[in-house]
Write a structure and sequence with these properties.
Elements lengths: L15 E4 L22 E4 L3 E3 L2 E3 L2 E4 L7 H18 L7 E2 L5
Parallel strand pairs: 1-2, 4-6
Antiparallel strand pairs: 2-5, 3-4
Amino acid sequence: MKSKLRTTINNENVIHFSSVPWLNFTTVTIPKINPKKDFIPKIIFGKAVKKENCMLMPVAVFANHMLIDALHINNYIKKLPGILKLLIKRANKIVLCRFNN
């Protein structure tokens, strides 16, 4: 049986995800990005901390404005708590905070 897993990667439909679960950041800088050549969005997750009855986690999004507007990033950020809630559904003890818009 032949594997259906793609073994080649091109720059289409790619997002670079990174996680630094030991770091609670307020800002992140990625050095040496060439905005004319680097079109791959980058999303970085930081340390999740419990505050009162909520889990808070910093998220940094880097994207080339030629391809993505703030509206797209806002839509992603709005959907993120629901995505995370699905991932931790079995640990039904955690309540995710809503983002203030």
